[in-house]
Design brief:
The chain has three domains: 260 residues, 2-Layer Sandwich (Aconitase, domain 3), CATH 3.30.499.10; 131 residues, 2-Layer Sandwich (Aconitase, domain 3); 164 residues, Aconitase, domain 4 (Alpha-Beta Barrel), CATH 3.20.19.10. It is 28% helix and 17% strand. 55% of the residues are buried. Strands 22-21-20-19-23-24-25 form a seven-stranded mixed beta sheet, covered by helices on one side. A five-stranded parallel beta sheet has the order 4-3-2-5-6, sandwiched between helices. It has a five-stranded parallel beta sheet with strand order 16-15-14-17-18, covered by helices on one side. Helix 2 packs across helix 5, helix 6 runs parallel beside helix 8 and helix 11 crosses helix 13. The protein is an alpha/beta fold and 609 residues long.
Length: 609
């Protein structure tokens, strides 16, 4: 039997001739990168553990989260990274370059069959060129920098075949929003997804990047395209050598196969709060907007900018609406300048910033305020991710048209006169000062920690609790674990006072896809800071799961809690080796998934290092 694309790539970068789903292997990484977000923590892990760099030529910093220099803590972290880079011969793609994952493609570092890890949770963008890209936490990245390889569990593979002829005007963003509508945030959780079809073969590199990027929001490990000749030619030119495409075997085994018809796809908009909560654009009621954002790693490409320039040409942004445009890389920015797009953007009344992640990163262009309604080309609209307001997600064409109209619409729906924007004022809530709590450090955890614990239950009956809800991006510059606990769940509705009420030894129980979203290690470390013993969930985001295991923070996956009759505040017993969960009130038990051999080893060792 043949092998899938992910199996072939992982086998090629391991000591194994072939690999199988569920197998845990060491995978060599062709590229190991850290951003300004997380980079200082990577340096700290290396220094604290006396580690050196395995191969500086394969090691990079990419400063894309805050290239505007608008945040003092980011500036400090960037300087720490620059100093470390100088001392160790590491290349820095500094604040003038743009989004790191895009740079890896632009500079020929990522191509069909290659592997890369970075602190960017959207590293699966590299699937656009048939590469395996994985976002990981700062401990994983530090280990990759020191050893050149990382442990990895080979995922099951899923094949999606998209048949039919692509409808006129259907953008790549619309395609991925239709996929999100079909599969949600959980259906493909933890799978490697390969996508095929005649319309897929015709996608440009920019379109492939858009779709691969939002594989993160679908919960997949990676979303892989087999490169067409245009993409192979591009990668070969950038790499300075002939790149041969790596392809799945014709008789490869897939855990699941889905066939969809692209002719059924329509233009869609994600409603505020969840990328997968999409509706057809024609179904949305007249929705006034205060601002519009075009950019991000999902839609900051040249083709996106060209689409926007075509719509904005000889038009003006609606009165009272702010339009912010951020190209993904400086190369794209310069091309926009040379071809007159920047002049079109500015003439229309848009604010244009230098290349970078923009609205997804706290403190940079694209954030909105309380009560503000934004339509964005970004990949996430989790509560608080792009600011305090409401964020709708859509294609560049819809966002540009909406900015002109003053309400959410398509280019065909732009009226002769923009919707009048009424001046409104909304009282901003007072924000309570963070509450100081007693914390524990990861280092206090001893290697002989018990494998069976008892504790009081916090039972949070919610799916898809993302890392911004756990530990908001406005606190990302914090590197000291002692400071993190006080911010735990302060962006999760109904649990903003969690840090004040939580006790050392408590156990958190949640539902599906806990920890989806960003690669931030702080979303794990904040629980360690508070002394939370473990988190139990039906499933975890892939990066979050790795971060927790590497930090020796116990997480357990359970199939169902039926039969335990749990309520919040109950006492339970959890055995990490057997996976047995027992209610101390009823003495009823359920069988959950025990620690894997790797997880148990790292747990007993007290962490990855």
């Amino acid at each position: 039997m043949g092998v899938t694309l992910i199996e072939k790539i992982l086998a090629n970068h391991s000591k194994q001739t072939t690999v199988k789903p569920g197998q845990i292997i060491d995978v060599g990484m062709d590229v190991r990168a850290a951003r300004d977000f997380g980079g200082a923590n990577v340096v700290k892990n290396l220094k604290d553990n006396g580690l050196s760099i395995d191969d500086p030529a394969k090691t990079f910093f990419t400063f894309d989260c805050n290239p505007t220099g608008s945040d003092q803590k980011y500036a400090v972290n960037q300087h720490i990274c620059r100093q470390f880079a100088r001392d160790n011969g590491i290349m820095v793609y500094d604040i003038d370059k743009g989004i790191g994952t895009h740079i890896l493609i632009h500079d020929g570092l990522a191509f069909s069959g290659s592997t890369a890890v970075t602190t960017d949770s959207h590293a699966n963008i590299l699937g656009a060129v048939g590469a395996f890209g994985q976002g990981m936490g700062d401990q994983d990245i530090a280990a990759a920098w020191a050893h050149g390889k990382l442990w990895f569990k080979v995922p099951e593979s899923v094949k999606i075949i998209i048949n039919g002829k692509r409808p006129e005007g259907l953008s790549a963003k619309d395609i991925v929003l239709n996929l999100l509508d079909r599969f949600g945030a959980n259906d493909l959780l933890g799978y490697s997804v390969e996508i095929y079809g005649e319309s897929i073969d015709e996608l440009t590199l920019d379109e492939r990047i858009t779709i691969a990027s939002m594989g993160t929001e679908m919960g997949v490990i990676t979303l892989l395209f087999t490169p067409n000749q245009q993409v192979i030619n591009y990668c070969s030119d950038k790499a300075g050598r002939l790149i041969s495409p790596v392809v799945a075997d014709p008789d490869a085994h897939y855990e699941k196969t889905f066939e969809l018809n692209i002719e059924d796809f329509v233009k869609r908009v994600s409603l505020p709060g969840a990328p997968h909560h999409t509706i057809p654009i024609e179904s949305i009621e007249i929705t006034r907007i205060d601002s519009a954002f075009i950019g991000s790693c999902t839609n900051g490409r040249y083709e996106d900018m060209a689409t926007v320039a075509n719509i904005l040409y000889d038009r003006k942004v609606a009165p009272g609406v702010v339009l912010k445009i951020v190209p993904a890389t400086d190369e794209i920015w310069q091309r926009c300048l040379n071809e007159g797009f920047i002049d079109i953007f500015k003439s229309a009344g848009a604010l244009v910033s230098n290349a970078g992640c923009a609205g997804c990163a706290a403190g940079q262009v694209g954030q909105n305020g309380l009560g503000e309604v934004t339509i964005s080309t970004g990949n996430r609209n989790f509560p608080g991710k792009q600011g305090k307001g409401e964020v709708y997600l859509a294609s560049p064409a819809i966002v540009a048209a909406s900015a002109i109209a003053g309400f959410i619409t398509t280019p065909e729906g732009i009226p002769d006169e923009p919707l009048a924007i009424a001046a409104t004022f909304q009282k901003v809530r007072d924000v309570a000062k963070p509450i100081a709590v007693t914390t524990t450090l990861r280092k206090i955890l001893a290697p002989d920690k018990p494998v069976e614990v008892e504790g009081r239950v916090w039972y949070i009956r919610e799916d898809n609790i993302d890392t911004d809800m756990i530990f908001h991006n406005r606190y990302l510059a914090i590197t000291d674990i002692k400071e993190m606990g006080q911010y735990t769940f302060d962006n999760l509705n109904g649990y903003q006072d969690f840090a004040k009420k939580a006790l050392k030894g408590d156990i958190v129980i949640v539902q599906k896809n806990f920890g989806s979203g960003s690669s931030r290690q702080q979303a794990v470390d904040c629980f360690l800071s508070l002394g939370i013993q473990c988190v139990l969930a039906e499933s975890f985001g892939a990066i979050y799961e790795r971060n927790a295991i590497n930090a020796a923070f116990p997480i357990i996956t359970y199939p169902s809690l039926q039969g335990l009759d749990l309520v919040e505040g109950d006492m339970i017993r959890v055995n990490y080796e057997t996976g047995m969960i027992t209610s101390l009130k009823t003495n009823k038990s359920i069988q959950a998934e025990p620690f894997s051999e790797v997880q148990l080893e790292i747990f007993k060792r007290g962490g990855l290092f």
